[in-house]
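Sample 3 of the quickstart, ligand zinc ion:
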Amino acid sequence: MPKPLRYAQALRYNRQIVLPQIDLQGQERWQHARVLVLGTGGLGCAALQHLCSSGIGQLTLVDGDIVEVTNLPRQCLFSNQQVGMQKVHAARDRLHAINPDCVIHTIAQMADDMLLDELVPEHDIVLDCTDNLASRNSINARCYKHNIPLVTGAAIRFEGQIMLVDPVQDSACYGCLSQLIQPTELSCTEAGIFSPVVNLIGLQQAHIALLHLLDKSPTRAGLLHTYDGLNMQWNQFTIPAYQGCPVCQASHKEIR
Ligand SMILES: [Zn+2]
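Result:
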């Protein structure tokens, strides 16, 4: 039987609990939720801050990088004093300061398929906050394999995109999206990134994950949201399932 919220926690989260869409039951669901965040760069920092402060019970952080001074203009969990630290440890220290009730697991390495096969099934939802195509494809495939919902986000220059992938709903997946829009291989190092845009996308990943955990997802799975930060404009596109997709279409067959 899951533990109910303590009195001090009910007070702490009062402004959320008074929302009828969240209520005490929703806050308790968050307390018992386990969220896997892959990547603690700009997207991950923004998402983690809000998952932690909102009352998610357990967070697992996976990243092999260390904090560099060039991260500081946008990666909001890190400070000047933490340059040179493993990002997952620096993020954990800051998140503990925000909300000591949150249990934080850290893995200071990049996620490979073997690690993902171990971690993904232990969580209720996954946030892909990585910054490269190989990781995104691998995370997408592992979430499909284990039937765990995924919120995938990306940002570069002044542009961002976000999509919920839900294997249970048989939605189009990141592999289908890649077939339609050839994702850029450019990194933020090469192309540059506007800090508010990457933070906005990470924040939206947390927004979707929090409501999805309450069965109140604010977006349909397979609906791509894009953001143009130079014109402050959101657009939406329904991504059709690509018949040749080796992930979600193969998932109907024994390859899975
Ligand atoms: Zn697919």
